[in-house]
Amino acid sequence: MSREERRQNGSSGKGASAYPAPVRELIERFAELPGIGVRSAERLAFHVLKSDEPSAMALAQAIAAVKKSVRHCNQCFNLSDSDVCSICADGSRDRSRVLVVEQPKDLIALEQTGMYRGLYHVLMGRLSALDGVGPEDLTIGALLDRVRSSGGEIEEVVLGLNPTVEGDGTGLYLAQALGELGVPVSRLARGLPSGGSLEYANKAVLADAILGRQSMGGGG
User: CATH no. for residue 174?
Assistant: First the structure.
């Protein structure tokens, strides 16, 4: 529900009009966040009001810094505060292996296991005909270009997509496209529950999935 709809429907409570305009605006902004209802938005707003000015301004500055400084890595599309993320810039990483994930949060979950030392590629989503998401809406083209331009340095692409219908469909599309380039393709083992998400899996499950990845064909 939009802020205008909340104003018209009075969804922020009968006493909402008693709040000063800046407080109403803050509540409405918090209520737009995922998983935050009006009551939670009010609690957050009052927490900010009760905080001292340096703490409140530090929060505002942190939000501004994220929007101004954080971008996507030019190589893998991970979140970064520079043109190339710290993982791609790390000379000790195994550059012969690229693990493909849907979102930066999936990359973070896998990286926390400490079991993978290769590079990554973030698709920024997954193929979904129902949602109108096609290959051109993701970074699939950049991944294929990356493999082509590697001069054979990339020896394996590991698919770390979420085990959902859309994730499996995306994996099949990538396996075919990468197979045509002659690069071996594997996927994380099904230690991950079907229908689950990488960000909610524990480290042990993710570590088993990395070690037990399975081939999907491709290569010479």
Answer: 3.40.1360.10
Strand arrangement, sheet containing 156-159: 118-122, 94-101, 156-159, 185-187, 214-215
Question: Which one-letter DSSP state was computed for residue 17?
Answer: G
Contacts of 104 (CB under 8 A, 6+ apart): 77, 78, 79, 122
Number of domains in the chain: 2
pLDDT score at 196:
77
CA terminus-to-terminus distance, the chain: 53
Give which of 188, 105, 104, 97 is closest to 146, Cα–Cα.
97
**Both tokens assigned to 214:** 């399975």
Q: Decide if 178 contacts 185 (C-beta within 8 A).
A: yes
Whether residue 158 is found in the same domain as residue 177: yes
220 belongs to a structural domain: no
Residue 18's CATH number: 1.10.8.420
Average pLDDT of span 187-205: 78
Asked if 127 contacts 161 with a C-beta cutoff of 8 angstroms, the reply is: no
Question: What does the angle CA 200 – CA 106 – CA 76 come to, to the nearest 5 degrees?
Answer: 175
60-87 tens-digit pLDDT: 999 999 999 989 999 999 999 999 999 9
